[in-house]
């Protein structure tokens, strides 16, 4: 489920090969720059939905929190490393938001708030993604969530941070693109 490349599918319908434009990353931020706000919002919602559906499907099979959380983390990994496109996918932020919106709604709301406030303050989507990823496990611990969910938030945060390592380098050198710049 996580491997469905909504960003690539939606931009191809518009004649855009996302892996050849902008950051070349098949994610919502590159969709925003190359195709506009509408498609970017659609990609974010669809990517979040695949994380949500993975967790909901697992819950239909079992009540084991560790198994359900693992299904969600698997959807995030599938999103980042899709088998259909040479294991080159997005950065996992929206998929993780969908997973943890179901497993840890309050922690996800805190992370989303941190994401939005950071973007508003810096105009860097990557900074918001990194800050939100760091806030998620902290909020999960503060909310005293079950250990498998906390572990899942830590794994998701680590994966998102690793996927943003190039962005961190660009942030540090002052070459990262702000919202509104193509």
Span from first to last CA? 30 Å
Q: How would a crystallographer describe the biggest sheet?
A: none
Please mark out the parts with pLDDT under 50 across 5 or more consecutive residues, or reply none.
Answer: none
Number of strands: 0
Tell me the overall shape. Answer: globular
SSE arrangement, N to C = HHHHHHHHH
Structural class: mainly alpha
What do the pLDDT scores average to? 91
Which band does the percent of strand residues land in?
under 5%
Q: Helical residue percent?
A: over 70%
The whole-angstrom Rg is: 16 Å
Number of helices: 9
Short summary of the structure?
With 182 residues, the protein is mostly helical.
Describe this structure in words.
The structure is a single chain. The model has no long low-confidence stretch (mean pLDDT 91). The protein is mostly helical. The protein contains nine helices and no strands. The two termini are 30 Å apart. The protein is globular, with a radius of gyration of 16 Å.
Chain-wise SSE layout:
Elements: H1 6-12, H2 28-35, H3 37-61, H4 65-80, H5 93-103, H6 105-122, H7 125-142, H8 147-163, H9 165-173
Please give a handful of descriptors for the protein shown:
single chain; 182 residues; mainly alpha; 9 helices; globular
């Amino acid at each position: 489920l996580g491997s469905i490349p909504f960003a690539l599918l939606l931009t191809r319908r518009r004649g855009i090969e996302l892996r050849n434009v902008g950051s070349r990353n098949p994610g919502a931020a590159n969709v925003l720059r190359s195709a506009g706000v509408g498609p970017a919002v659609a990609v974010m919602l669809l990517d979040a939905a695949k994380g949500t559906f993975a967790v909901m499907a697992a819950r239909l099979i079992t009540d084991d929190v560790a198994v359900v959380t693992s299904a969600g983390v698997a959807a995030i990994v599938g999103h980042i490393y899709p088998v259909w496109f040479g294991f080159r996918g997005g950065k996992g932020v929206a998929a993780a938001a969908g997973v943890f919106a179901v497993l840890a709604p309050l922690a996800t709301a805190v992370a989303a708030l941190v994401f939005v406030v950071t973007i508003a303050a810096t105009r860097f989507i990557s900074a918001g993604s990194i800050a939100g990823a760091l806030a998620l496990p902290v909020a999960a611990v503060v909310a005293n969530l079950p250990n498998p969910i906390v572990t899942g938030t830590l794994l998701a945060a680590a994966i998102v941070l690793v996927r943003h390592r190039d962005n961190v380098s660009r942030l540090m050198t002052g070459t990262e693109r702000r919202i509104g710049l193509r």
